[in-house]
């Protein structure tokens, strides 16, 4: 039997100026139109919980002069980064002078994840074929 979406009234209040400032200062990206939080406005947020996890958030906000409606649907993360093979690394080095590699480590560890080990295996043939190549770390 298919589970039906359910409504969940999650928030019914106002955001204080202090809370808005705290959020605004911590947000790395507020979108092209800025934040979806508004100070000194009554805000209601509802959630439609869906069995597949793609919940829908509906935010209604307003005051005596205007109102706003924001709708957001949550979806699963889609991995768009792919493993570069050694020939692709060599091609990028020849064309642009650099190759950007994504090597994954365990959280707070110096241990490579399985896909990180695969990335390192692809680097080895490139480094052994070009003796003039040097590695440079960009991020810590």
Explain how this protein is built.
By secondary structure, this protein is of the alpha+beta class. It is 26% helix and 22% strand. It has helices at residues 17-26, 86-96, 114-129, and strands at 6-14, 42-49, 56-62, 67-73. A 4-stranded antiparallel sheet has the order 1-2-3-4, with no helix packed on it. A hairpin with a 6-residue loop joins strand 2 and strand 3 (56-62). The chain is elongated. The N and C termini lie far apart (49 Å).
| Computed CA radius of gyration, to the nearest angstrom | 24 Å
Instruction: Note the overall shape.
Output: elongated
Mean pLDDT: 77
Task: Note poorly predicted spans.
Answer: none
Strand content: 15-25%
Briefly note the structural class of the backbone: alpha+beta
Question: What's this entry about, in short?
Answer:
This protein has helices at 17-26, 86-96, 114-129; strands spanning 6-14, 42-49, 56-62, 67-73. With 140 residues, the chain is an alpha+beta fold.
Would you spell out the secondary-structure blueprint of this structure?
Elements: E1 6-14, H1 17-26, E2 42-49, E3 56-62, E4 67-73, H2 86-96, H3 114-129
Antiparallel strand pairs: 1-2, 2-3, 3-4
Helix pairs in contact: 2-3
Label this structure with key terms.
140 residues, alpha+beta, 4-stranded antiparallel β-sheet, 4 strands, elongated
